[in-house]
């Protein structure tokens, strides 16, 4: 294919995306009409049917819903009462997979909840309700994940956990908890071993101030249940003409948390992929390799959709997996591609950015907390495309995982620019016969995961490596 032919195809993509408000309207329906799309819920099922309909409307091929069993969670009443040094009730929410509980125990401030905080406190953790910051990292920085903090507390015998949002606004913080049995998938396996709740920054700050007067004791009264259910991925493709068995995957998760609309995390990423697919579908019959668009289900509850799809497909079929968790936010022009241990691709994408006169940040940093990871553990080249937004000065996810993750935070231009970049990169990888990355061997993949401190946890969970 000549350079002029490729340029003509890019122009078609850009014209389609820039002259339409389709992505913004699709996101509005997902948020305002369908709702949170919590994994395994009726809202998620309706979201999947809607996304399937859009893929068919856009002309994608092999459009289908891929169902899989999972354990979902239903929220009940939650009450947090401080008993000492004064008695006062505070607003709180249970975190997904939190068990029903009626727990009274002493409180222990574990600061940021990092591993060295727990090591410093040692045996003091046992039998306590620990309280810590939910997230401490600024955007672009790496910090310990909520589930890491939970495991450190559990290992040291904590009885319960209170996560404090680090952004103001009386917003509760949420996020799923790891289950009792990492190798199991039943409702009993998936339920968390100790209760955990999320509170606002203002509530957490007040509790910590009161504790400075001389310790503290609290009671957590929580009504929740974990039940067997079904989740689903939504899949559509543009089949390649020369190498249809080689796949470039564009995927964002369409599920959100039940307390919000999930607009930025990750409705925007979902419609970014959908819009890229709409534009690329015009090139049907001209793409060398297959481009697969996936709206993953149940990411927020443990990457369930991505794990299922990775388990069910041939790892040798993938040329590249582009996760879109966090794409489409902001007003555009601040996109970032985070690769997962593929230094050879930093130069490749940097060269593309220079030649196409569209600079974006390119990093190489393996992490395990989004839908790229089930493909990374199979040695498949991958990365996550995301965008900085108006919360760039906030801690952690900003509005994400709170009630404020709503449609009004998203801008149509941000969706257009992320979709245009994702579609152009996918087109390049489809047509380029000299793409430099190949699937890693099992030995190399295991070595990479071990160096990142992730191998033992994966093996404990019974995950296939490579």
Summarize this, please?
This protein has 466 residues and is α/β, with parallel strands linked by helices.
Note poorly predicted spans: none
Query: Which CATH class of the largest domain applies here?
Result: Alpha Beta
Examine the coordinates and then state which fold CATH places here, giving the name of the CATH topology of the largest domain: Aminopeptidase
Q: Which series of helices and strands comes N to C? A: HHHEEEEEHEHEHEHEEEHEHEEHEHEHHH
Level of helix content? 25-40%
> Oligomeric status of the shown chains?
single chain
- Total beta strand runs: 16
Report, as a whole number of angstroms, the end-to-end distance.
33 Å
Number of helices: 14
> What CATH architecture label of the largest domain applies?
3-Layer(aba) Sandwich
Number of domains: 2
Strand order of the largest sheet: 1-10-12-11-13-16-14-15
The secondary-structure class comes to: alpha/beta
User: What is Rg?
Assistant: 22 Å
The biggest sheet, with number of strands, parallel, antiparallel or mixed sense and barrel status, is: 8 strands, mixed
The overall pLDDT average reads 96
The CATH superfamily label of the largest domain reads Zn peptidases
Indicate the proportion of strand residues: 15-25%
Key attributes of the depicted protein:
466 residues, alpha/beta, Aminopeptidase, Glucose Oxidase, domain 1, 8-stranded mixed beta sheet, globular
